[in-house]
UniProtKB/TrEMBL annotation:
Protein name: Endonuclease V
Pfam families: Endonuclease_5
GO molecular function annotation: endonuclease activity
Keywords: Endonuclease, Hydrolase, Nuclease
InterPro entries noted in UniProt: Endonuclease-V (IPR007581)
GO BP of this protein: DNA repair
Hydrolase keyword on record: yes
Length: 174
């Protein structure tokens, strides 16, 4: 199973959504998980993971990961050639390096990273940026390029982004 995570921040809570799908060619999701949590950390430039990682780890408690499962985050796994890691790298470490983590980012990170792949989908001239750990990035690049949907952002990842932006305050933890 592939589990894709995204978080959107409202004024007083964070909404994290996970879309689970069977394989890279899936047109629809198998499951959707969602959780609203209190914001545990202010945004800190260069340390985005401090804010989002607790949200993802909390939602992961609802999911029974199995060997062979993959995780996608909206962001970066690696940040530069010196070994600095991003959200996906911290998630990988938090999961004891058991599950490959793939970062698919919409915006380019300024520093050079020889492991980062650029992906052009559909007719878009604007790329997505791919990083990963625990799995071959070249193989994943081809899979992301061929995910369902004709636009820059694959259909299931676009749906994930939209779901995080649908405000549902009933699930906020107190």
């Amino acid at each position: 199973m592939i589990y894709a995570f995204d978080t959107f921040y409202y004024e007083d809570f964070a909404k994290t959504v996970c879309i689970a799908f069977e394989d890279w060619n899936s047109e629809t999701e198998s499951f959707i998980y969602s959780e609203n949590t209190e914001i545990s950390s202010d945004y800190e430039s260069g340390a985005f993971y401090k804010r989002e990682l607790p949200c993802i780890l909390s939602l992961l408690k609802k999911i029974d990961l199995k060997e062979g499962d993959l995780i996608i985050v909206d962001g970066y796994v690696t940040l530069d050639n010196s070994g600095k890691i991003g959200l996906g790298g911290y998630l990988y470490e938090s999961l004891n390096k058991k599950y490959p983590v793939i970062g698919i980012a919409k915006n380019e990170f300024a520093s050079e990273d020889d492991l980062r792949k650029t992906i052009f989908r559909g007719e878009s001239k604007t790329p997505l940026f791919l990083t990963a750990v625990g799995i071959d990035t070249d193989d994943i690049k081809i899979k992301v390029e061929n995910m369902y949907g004709t636009y820059r952002i694959p259909a299931l990842l676009k749906k994930l982004d939209q779901l995080t932006r649908e405000k549902d305050e009933l699930n906020v933890r107190s």
